[in-house]
Specification:
This protein is α/β, with parallel strands linked by helices. Helices cover about 30% and strands about 15% of the residues. The two termini are about 35 Å apart. Mean pLDDT is about 85; it is low at about 1-15 and about 315-343.
């Protein structure tokens, strides 16, 4: 593996860490078998989001690169190629750990140049993936944000976030804290094949319930909605119903997008597991990384109608859901999509 383009002495952008600071480890335990960790001393930890990005935030913190969740569609796969690492199995099993992330963040938040802007986490790879169970970087990161009363948000598929619930409660007392859990579907068969390293959808929704019961508002990013595999009316209804029953404060649908790096890996998976769909995907994504606008709006309308039916939305935030026999949406329920946001 070469680290040349991101280490000291590179001719590109400022180095992210020194080559002599990379320590490679493997652990022969069931949860980490087959995974290699590259421990690095990062040179910076607060990253500015490129201006052309669709993301609704400007600054991020990513303590890890690569992700053992192994989601076949993960858009972050391309970033592994910047380290000359494989974007397929390498992304799932070669994890870069920024071991000095907490201390570095505390230093950067204390800089006179920092203006206290919102920081988003979990937007590239999951900060509560399995590696966090060993390296425990997030308690120090949340503690630094709390001590500087800095607003932040976390997006995760990891139930390990519950370990840090007391810290999140303390941070929420001094700053705006937004938590969102990603649950694109509740189909267990689909989950086992496309998100093999993640906690089950049921476990994630149980985490949502635990967070909301503890006074931490938690929304659900219903992502990704996977065309032809997770988008039937029955599947959408089951997912929104389960989200409502979890006590989530909101549900935001996001249709699968396939950027370079992820697109090739997902297409290979599709050819193995659902070859009849390959041609349909080629047509649907012929225009680029995103599904057609009409399809995205259709999914958004359906999810918003179901959310209204099951009583989840801005006027019933965090309330316990007691779902009985489903009824048809009330007459006059919103039919037009609203602006999608990530968190």
């Amino acid at each position: 593996m070469r680290w040349d383009n991101l280490t000291e002495g590179s001719t590109g952008p400022a180095a992210l860490f020194g080559a002599d600071a990379v320590v490679t480890r493997t652990f022969d335990t069931p949860e980490f078998r087959g995974i290699t960790f590259h421990e690095v001393r990062a040179r910076s930890i607060v990253n500015r989001v490129p201006g052309a990005s669709r993301m609704p935030f400007e600054w991020t913190v990513n303590p890890y690169r690569g992700c053992s969740h192994a989601c076949v569609y993960c858009f972050a796969r391309k970033t592994h190629s910047y380290l000359d690492l494989d974007t397929g199995l390498g992304f799932d099993s070669q994890i870069v750990v920024k071991t000095n992330a907490p201390e570095l963040l505390r230093r950067e938040l204390g800089s006179p140049r920092w203006n206290g802007a919102h920081i988003a986490m979990g937007t590239n790879v999951d900060c509560y993936q399995r590696a966090e169970g060993r390296y425990r970087l997030m308690p120090g990161i949340i503690g630094a944000l709390r001590d500087h009363a800095n607003p932040f948000s976390i997006l995760t598929k990891g139930t390990l976030i519950l370990r840090d619930l007391p810290l999140l409660q303390e941070a929420a007392e001094v700053a705006e804290v937004g938590i969102s859990v990603s649950v694109g579907f509740t189909d267990t068969g689909l989950w086992r094949t496309v998100e093999p390293g993640t906690p089950s959808p049921a476990a994630r929704l149980a985490a949502v319930r635990a967070l909301t019961d503890a006074g931490i508002e938690c929304g659900v990013l219903m992502a990704p909605v996977i065309p032809f595999l997770g988008d039937s009316p029955e599947q959408l209804r089951a997912t929104v119903r389960a989200v409502a029953e979890s006590g989530a404060t909101s549900v935001t649908p996001l249709v699968l997008h396939l950027r370079p790096g992820a697109r090739e890996w997902f297409t290979a998976w599709l050819g193995e597991h659902h070859p009849r769909l390959v041609e349909r995907y080629e047509r649907m994504y012929a225009g680029g990384s995103y599904a057609p606008t009409w399809y995205q709006r259709q999914i958004t309308r359906q999810v918003h109608r179901l959310a209204a039916e099951f009583g989840i939305g801005p006027h019933s935030r965090g309330a316990a859901r007691r779902i009985v026999t489903p009824e048809r949406p009330a007459a006059g329920a919103p039919a037009e999509p609203t602006q999608l946001t990530l968190l």
